[in-house]
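SEQUENCE-TO-STRUCTURE ENTRY
===========================
Question of interest: how does this chain fold, as expressed in backbone structure tokens?
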Amino acid sequence: KPPPKAAPEAAPEAAPAEEPAPAEEKSGDFADKDAKYEDVAWSSLPSSAREAAESIGFDEKKWDEKEWLPHIDDKHWEDLSDDEKKACETLGWDVHSWDKKYEGQEWADLPEVVQKAASKLGWDQEKW
């Protein structure tokens, strides 16, 4: 006669799930990162963007009040440290958008993703 079957072991309790970071808002193939998170409240930033912002000197108050950070904002891209560039890239900036910030460019000459970002922030061809 075979021995009695053992009762199945209970699955170990799962660790409580961490609260997920806010998901990046996306509309079509356009994301908040394309608008440099400029209209995203600190509390809604994805954790990677919040960490990048903190690394260059932002905190919730400075971010939400769109405070100018001279030690970062007044630099040319080439003058940023590698860590500052990495943080800025995480926030959606690159050498072209950082140094020129698209000054003097006609609306029609802006990359499509920049037009979408600008539109999200209230710009259109007439206002630009």
